[in-house]
Automatic annotation (TrEMBL):
Similarity field: Belongs to the RNA polymerase alpha chain family.
Gene Ontology CC terms: cytoplasm; DNA-directed RNA polymerase complex
Catalysed conversion reaction: RNA(n) + a ribonucleoside 5'-triphosphate = RNA(n+1) + diphosphate
Organism classification: unclassified sequences, metagenomes, ecological metagenomes
Residues annotated as domain DNA-directed RNA polymerase RpoA/D/Rpb3-type: 60-204
Keywords assigned: DNA-directed RNA polymerase, Nucleotidyltransferase, Transcription, Transferase
Official protein name in the record: DNA-directed RNA polymerase
Amino acid sequence: MPETAEATETVEITSKKPETMEKMGVEEMSEEAKIFSKNWSEIAKPKWLKFDESTIRSGYGKFILDPLEPGFGTTIGHALRRVLLSSIQGSSIFALQIEGVTHEFSNVSGVMEDVLQIILNIKELQIEQFVDGVVEMELIREGPCVITGRDISTFEKAKILNPNKVIATLQEGATISVILYTRFNKGYVSSEENQKFDLPVGTIYL
């Protein structure tokens, strides 16, 4: 395999035979044990892991693990994905208030999207939170304009990682005022669980 970019970190991987295989000689092993031993000894085992720093961008990085049996890359990838989604802490917007709106099935005058679509767009925002606890962010705009994640005021307590994400489109003379609440958590959290936070009346929980 050709060498990757210069900014590449390589980690060698060593594997060890099962303890039973080390203690038993080949002549002492049963047929089943010999088959097991053959399966283990002849399988392609990764010898090194490379991380290509030149590929780093928002939400992406290239790791090279080699060699692997056909299909094992997908198997390992799925396992890592499940761990990242279920076990790693992250931050996200879990509630919001839109001035003049009491529920998600409303409409905001002069805004092309309905509230439900605005909420769906907001849920796609990727947040990096710098402080623990509930962080309050603010979005105030006047039309005509296209509102994106870049328009959210985070007060240096968080950062929008996909600032070009479109949230809503305002027509001439239209205004919108939104308070967004974000916090750390992991895995899936229902809107019912989010309601345990004592937020003002009219808050919509995601």
